[in-house]
């Protein structure tokens, strides 16, 4: 173990030497190019370099180690939502759903361990069981800037282990005078041959009121997209018995994702006051039709063998609607020597799944099932497998679900500038009261012993192999019309996932900053007191009873941040911070399901995860869009949470399976982030139009899990050891071209039992390559052409070793053509 860690440290130190050498090179270049400090750069135009300059200026001025991307840069990439825009930043990777960015991972930590704020207030999660916010619900057009804060100061919520994603929407004070823009875009998905429209627009302006000059402004933004696409999939879910398979599922998806986003913001300012109102609404409707052809073998089946078993054609047809609303009213007021800042915020996220078909299954028996490939285990048989007459209706299941997550908070901060021995200092203290309530209600119906089977049509154009006919959704719905749903309710599923959870957090802090020559020192302490309560249900062999749970705990969180200005373009930063993250709602659920000798339940007494964090970074800024930086970080995480089987212990002694969640002792995460970007405007034409950038994150994690006398060390789920981005482009007065790539190595996806590491599921490495371009037809009118996923990169997950499929999915490239008019 020690030898392995030393090797890892050497790996991390080698790039550090390279970074210092490159910093010296950049210094020479900056002097020869007569580079200016970023503090004096005026952002003009809408090119990639100008956007990067604006983001770097914010990053340099921050008291935290952070990464920033601005609206113009987002608009010049083929990214459909905020999650995809964030993947370009150092230390950030994303989890994809159907090939589209969804959840954001920071420094290899799962989205549930990070926080998302919109205009300074926490965003609750639409999904019933999660804390992580799926940022695909937020259209990128509503965003003015995105920042990932990796070292928190005491005045920020401490609820993130990897980082806090800050989403800022448009303000009238982001532009001078009247600003408006509008875009229209059409996209084509190659896999399903479908076209998708997209429209967006924004406007802002300033006015003179109450005798002031340009002191009041409003900004509005609107975005609509109706994306139609699909995917082809084959998966086993890890159902391997050695080299043999127990079951396979081939899936054909038709998907429509409709996004509507709107924001309306107001600002008023004078010499001593600033007040604002920020509003944001986002609606995301995901309509999915999934046809599946499943095989369940009578006995575990080897590749190239002829096996018998049951084949099932299954339909899932559902609509999932997610809404996020955020309202923030706040301001800043000069009170003599003090500055008071306050904010009142309300946010709500909800997900509604109207009653839909969760499974309609038609089954048949076959004696000649086989598959040839363990990576893409598409199975086949004789012609009868593709004949609708071979399948008879077995069952239909329906489900509806509604979850809501509300967060209300009030915070107040006081700041005073003063001097100590002629050194500029600032003292700041404040408090925050927040209340969060999450509810979930699920109902399910199951209809069995049904007759008939002539509900098929057509033939699926399935890119991975022969699939056969589709199930007719309308025919299935017609069958349900004559059935009594009250007599077919699934009592277990209709109660076990219902819950109401409340979480109140009261926080207070103080901090002091002082500037001593080239040093800036920030020291402070934050206190957070948490009250939790939850109500749910226990289902035990047909009997239902209510459950309740309560918990209270508090944390003192010290903080020290140092910033040293080596010269006007070079900064050295160091930070010691402490953070705390509560368990997810699934992990701490009071619900319980007991069926015969199998049980599944949450653990309401789980301890929160806490982390001691050390960060050290060096940043060099030069030229146009030029920066080079390196960050080294270490996190010691206490009370990490993992899923486990406690069958055979205590009250579960006689059970075959009893799955729940448990706290581990401590885990370690450490790594190196490196970023470099530059526009080569010091070169002669046409090479002065070149712009390029790279960033990488190398990390390592280990956590020790124990159960029933067995133990092993593993990495965190979702933590890739290497994540990298690269961008190479050229931009001139009228034309811009750019290739961008996003890469990450394999990462643990799902942890198996302690004594079965061969059944762990991993996400394989991925490399997504995108192309974007623009042509300025006039000063205000721009034509864009983008290609997302040029190389048709797949998603692949494997079980234990790379040859054994857990899931294989392909999406095809997407081509986009758009036009934008901007007045600025």
TrEMBL record:
Residue ranges of domain TonB-dependent receptor plug in the record: 62-164
Q: Which GO terms describe its cellular component?
A: cell outer membrane
Membrane topology value: Multi-pass membrane protein
Give UniProt keywords alphabetically.
Cell outer membrane, Membrane, Signal, TonB box, Transmembrane, Transmembrane beta strand, Transport
PANTHER family membership: PLUG DOMAIN-CONTAINING PROTEIN, TONB-DEPENDENT RECEPTOR-LIKE BETA-BARREL DOMAIN-CONTAINING PROTEIN
Q: Which family does it belong to?
A: Belongs to the TonB-dependent receptor family.
Protein's organism? Acinetobacter nectaris CIP 110549
Concerning SUPFAM superfamilies, the annotation shows: Porins
Residue span of the signal peptide, if any? 1-30
Q: What broad taxonomic lineage does this protein's source fall under?
A: Bacteria, Pseudomonadati, Pseudomonadota, Gammaproteobacteria, Moraxellales
Ranges of residues in domain TonB-dependent receptor-like beta-barrel? 371-790
**Record localization:** Cell outer membrane
* Pfam (any one): TonB_dep_Rec_b-barrel
The protein depicted here goes by the name TonB-dependent receptor
Record flagged with keyword Transferase: no
């Amino acid at each position: 173990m020690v030898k392995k860690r030393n090797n890892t440290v050497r790996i991390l130190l080698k790039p550090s030497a390279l970074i210092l050498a490159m910093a010296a090179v950049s210094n020479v270049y900056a002097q020869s190019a007569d580079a200016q400090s970023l503090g004096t750069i005026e952002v003009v135009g809408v090119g990639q370099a100008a956007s990067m300059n604006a983001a770097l200026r914010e990053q340099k001025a921050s008291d935290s180690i952070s990464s920033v991307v601005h609206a113009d840069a987002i608009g010049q990439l083929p990214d459909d939502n905020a999650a995809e825009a964030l993947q370009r930043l150092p230390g950030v990777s994303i989890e994809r759903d159907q090939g589209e960015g969804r959840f954001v991972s920071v420094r290899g930590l799962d989205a549930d361990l990070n926080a998302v704020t919109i205009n300074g207030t926490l965003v609750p999660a639409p999904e019933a069981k999660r804390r992580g916010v799926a940022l695909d619900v937020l259209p990128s057009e509503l965003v003015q800037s995105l920042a990932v804060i990796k070292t928190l100061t005491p005045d920020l919520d401490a609820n993130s282990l990897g980082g806090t994603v800050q989403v800022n929407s448009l303000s009238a004070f982001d532009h001078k005078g009247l600003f408006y823009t509008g875009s229209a875009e059409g996209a084509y998905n190659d896999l399903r041959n479908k076209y998708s429209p997209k429209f967006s627009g924004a406007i802002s302006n300033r006015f003179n009121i109450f005798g002031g000059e340009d002191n009041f402004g409003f900004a509005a933004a609107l975005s609509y997209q109706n994306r139609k696409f699909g995917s082809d999939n084959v998966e086993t879910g890890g159902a391997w018995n050695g080299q043999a398979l127990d079951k396979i599922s081939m899936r054909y998806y038709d998907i429509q994702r409709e996004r509507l986003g709107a924001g309306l913001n107001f600002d008023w300012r004078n010499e001593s006051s600033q007040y604002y109102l920020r509003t944001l609404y986002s609606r995301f409707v995901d309509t999915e039709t999934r046809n599946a052809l499943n095989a369940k073998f009578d006995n575990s089946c080897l590749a190239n063998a002829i096996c018998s078993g049951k084949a099932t054609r299954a339909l899932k047809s559902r609509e999932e609607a997610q809404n996020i609303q955020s309202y923030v009213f706040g301001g800043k007021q000069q009170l003599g020597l003090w500055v008071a800042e306050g904010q009142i915020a309300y946010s709500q996220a909800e997900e509604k799944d109207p009653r839909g078909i969760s499974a309609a299954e038609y089954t048949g028996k076959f004696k000649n099932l086989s598959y040839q490939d363990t990576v893409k285990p598409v199975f086949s048989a004789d012609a009868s497998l593709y004949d609708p007459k071979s399948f008879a209706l077995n069952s239909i299941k329906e489900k509806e679900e509604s979850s809501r997550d509300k967060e209300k908070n009030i915070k107040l901060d006081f700041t005073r500038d003063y001097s100590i021995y002629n050194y500029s200092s600032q003292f700041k203290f404040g408090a925050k009261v927040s209340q969060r309530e999450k509810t979930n209600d699920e109902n399910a119906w199951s209809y069995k012993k049904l007759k008939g089977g002539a509900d098929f049509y057509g033939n699926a154009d399935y890119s991975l192999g022969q699939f056969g006919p589709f199930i007719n959704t309308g025919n299935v719905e017609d069958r349900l019309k004559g059935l009594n749903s009250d007599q077919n309710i699934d009592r277990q599923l209709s109660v076990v996932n219902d819950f109401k959870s409340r979480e109140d957090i009261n926080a207070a802090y103080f901090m002091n900053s002082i500037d001593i020559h080239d040093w800036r020192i920030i020291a402070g302490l934050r206190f957070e007191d948490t009250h939790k309560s939850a109500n749910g249900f226990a289902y035990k062999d047909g009997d239902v009873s209510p459950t309740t749970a309560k918990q209270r705990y508090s944390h003192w969180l010290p903080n020290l941040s140092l910033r040293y200005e080596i010269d006007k373009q070079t900064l050295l930063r160091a930070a010691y911070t402490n953070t705390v993250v509560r368990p997810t709602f699934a992990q701490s659920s009071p619900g319980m399901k007991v069926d015969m000798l199998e049980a599944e339940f949450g653990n309401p007494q789980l301890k929160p995860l806490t982390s001691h964090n050390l960060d050290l970074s060096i940043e060099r800024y030069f030229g146009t869009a030029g920066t080079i930086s390196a960050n080294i970080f270490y996190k010691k995480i206490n009370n990490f949470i993992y899923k486990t089987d406690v069958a055979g212990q205590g009250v579960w002694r006689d059970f075959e399976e009893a799955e729940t969640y448990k706290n581990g002792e401590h885990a370690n995460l450490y790594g190196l982030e490196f970023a470099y970007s530059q526009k080569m405007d010091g070169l002669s034409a046409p090479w002065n139009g070149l712009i390029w950038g790279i960033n990488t994150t190398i990390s390592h994690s280990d956590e020790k899990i124990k159960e029933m006398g067995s133990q092993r060390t593993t990495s965190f789920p979702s933590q890739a050891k290497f994540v990298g981005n690269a961008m190479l482009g050229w931009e001139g007065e009228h034309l811009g071209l750019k290739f961008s790539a996003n890469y990450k190595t394999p990462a643990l996806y799902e942890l198996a039992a302690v004594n079965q590491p061969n059944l762990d599921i991993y996400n394989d490495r991925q490399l997504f390559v995108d192309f974007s371009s623009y042509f300025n037809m006039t000063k205000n009118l721009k034509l864009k052409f983008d290609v997302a996923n040029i190389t048709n990169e797949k998603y692949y997950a494997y079980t234990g070793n790379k040859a054994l499929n857990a899931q294989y999915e392909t999406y095809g490239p997407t081509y986009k053509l758009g036009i934008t008019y901007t007045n600025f």
